[in-house]
Amino acid sequence: MNRKRKTGNADVLVKRYAPISDGLALLFFPYAEVVIHDTASKKVVYIANNLSRREVGDDSAIDELDIDPAKRLYGPYEKVNWDGRRMRSVSVTLEDDKGAMAGVMCVNFNIAVFEEIGNVLELFVRGVGVAPSHPLDLFKDDWQERINVFLHRWLQERQLAINSLSRDHKRELVEALYIEGAFKGKSAANYVANLLGMGRATVYKHLKALRGELIPELEVYK
């Protein structure tokens, strides 16, 4: 995984920072490359998980960073790898035993592979030839979807989660669904009871109070 050569500042840089470089490269293997540059010789002195096809001893491109001795961290910034793929990088200045800047460690992360995965997922989620909604002639009375849409809009407006609703919230939601006409569908009360984790008898009780009349189904649960 690693290639190194020790000359000048490289002795200190490699001894002190090579284990860190190896650790980062192993943690994010195979997507991260870590390169140590000697700012005195402007040479590459260590490479962990070589993705850029550079070699130890190659000239560095650290002048591109416009290094400020008082600044320790650069990036994240993007660069293009030899194969045309995008890399996202951060660079950190390194110190010698006297606290003076002696080198730069660059962590180069291959984000192209994740972009490709993202593109595949986007295509899969978006679909090909998928209609924006279901066929009206086949689902002209899809009361379940109407309940789902209303339910989640109601939750979002109140910044609530369905699994953390209180008893009062559930009662309010049943009332809101009733006003919306959600219980006109066959078995709608049972469906709402299952969604909200309520007993069917409780839902029928709320509906009875709202309608002001006896609901036949309620007799089953007395």
TrEMBL record:
Residues 15-117 form the YheO-like domain. InterPro entries: DauR-like, DauR-like_HTH, YheO. Keywords: Plasmid. The keyword Cytoplasm does not apply. Pfam families: HTH_22, PAS_6. The keyword Signal does not apply. Residues 147-208 form the Transcriptional regulator DauR-like HTH domain. This is Transcriptional regulator DauR.
